[in-house]
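Here is one chain, start to finish.
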Amino acid sequence: MSLASLTYPFLFVKSKISAEPAPARRIPPRLAGLHQLSFPVSNLDVSLAWYASVLSASHLLALDQYTARGQRCAAQLSMAALGQACLELRLDHAQAKHAGGSESVTWAVKSRAELQAWIEWLDVKGVKRSKIFTGAVGWLLVFEDPDGRFLRLHTQESHEVTMEVDRDDYWLGGRSS
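Its structure:
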């Protein structure tokens, strides 16, 4: 029996093996979109409550993941800004420890006025945040999640391109935005 005549038992399709290499692609295959963002967290319950309270995320209970011992190790959240994608919070103490001060995601907001509204919201929630920074093409605000991960809000509203950007060693790591 030749290898080319073997069938997959569940697919009932004969495989055809070719000695010729597949033609080289000039461009990568198309990505369909974002499936999920995954953040390591040190405390799943604290992070779930924070993302629900601060960012209006909805916990998708049916998608929780558990270890073999029955302990919840990951949770999926739905957020309007992500469309069909989810935000996954995965319990990982070691990785969460290293996430502090790192930039994980930058969300878009329409205007500088909306950044000001976010400042008021974050202050009400007691969230550590930056001032509004001037970036190269717009304005941004940075704030911390419970693990110290930096989340950024950047305006779609823009100003004239400038190299006179704000710098801040803590919030921007000495980098410009």
